[in-house]
Amino acid sequence: MGFDPDQPGVKEAVLWEPLPGGRVKCNLCHRHCVIVQDAYGACGVRYNYEGRLYTLVYGMLTAANPDPIEKKPLTHFHPGAYVFSISTVGCNFYCKFCQNWVLSQTRRERVYGELFTPEEVVEQAISKGCVGVSYTYNEPTVFYEFMHDVALLAKEKGLFNTIVTNGYMTLEAIRMLRGLIDAATVDFKASGNKDFYRKFMGVPDPEPIFDSILEMKKQGWWIEITNLIVPEVGDGEEDLKRLAEWVRDNLGAETPFHLLRFHPEYLLNDLPPTPVKTLEKLAELALETGLKHVYVGNVWGHRLENTYCPSCGNLVVERKGFFITKWKLSSEFKCQVCNYQLNFKGAFHGSRLRDYLIWW
Ligand code: SF4
Questions:
Q1: Which domain range does residue 359 map to?
Q2: Ligand 1 within 6 A of 30 CB?
Q3: pTM (global) more than 0.85
Q4: Fewer Cβ within 10 Å of end Cβ, the chain: N or C?
Q5: Are 172 and 212 spatial neighbours (Cβ–Cβ below 8 Å)?
Q6: Residues 272, 160: one domain?
């Protein structure tokens, strides 16, 4: 069956330019795909039809549900909030270890989803008690048009917007979200090692990510960094130090820096989960660079799930997984022992001790 530009989920894309011979160039991510007629971009959800570029996933959602904001993870932005989390299929990366590969690696003719309008997303977010919307699970760059329209409406209704991204969005695309996105979790793998990105993620060069993060900062987005540590092939100490120093020098020493434990998944099943000792060693190195808020993620009950006051060392926020179980900061996010002003933004939305106890 041929392509129909009027079918559900299809909409003319933004940020593309025509090229001779009916080709188009997509300028949404740093791949800058040049796409011939009747072909897809590398993300598998953008299609050249008669010399124009179309997205295939406008409102075609594969998830629409509330999540704790700590799941993104955002630990210093509106702590304790619930955010309405949406995704589609497709991704501009080809990570062999993707935890959400069923969504991210579904592309081209296999695109699926349940059709939503931006109004429906925002209505559901509000009715389910969420104070923000999160664009997450698969790379939101590939559903940019829908994200933009939902974010605009969410803002009008007083919600904030957060994005979980691999950071490969172009500067132009980030600028077009001016005033709409409030916070970003930028996901690194293997501390941004170039060979790792080439071999295990199908990404030619991670360097442009750093420029994109600087542009996000310029736009006033709250930024937290995650870094997936893959044992044996993506746990280099020099790479970790380089990334931690870059974060310290460019985003500030109090930027939350999350080291995530790898679990074998998808095509990388022959590796073990990251040893906790490796994560602890790398966390120590990150702290030695001067970073103040280094977290360990995907290790239930680890002491580095908690926040400690950078000044007096007092435990100020205790977490178990995505649950806040103790909160000992003032309403202005000051340490109740030494009055140090911690680097948090937004408001505290309440402890989830009760949710934790029910879940447990
Ligand atoms: S968004 Fe998709 S089509 Fe556009 S440059 Fe990136 S991978 Fe290519």
A1: 306-360
A2: no
A3: yes
A4: N
A5: no
A6: yes
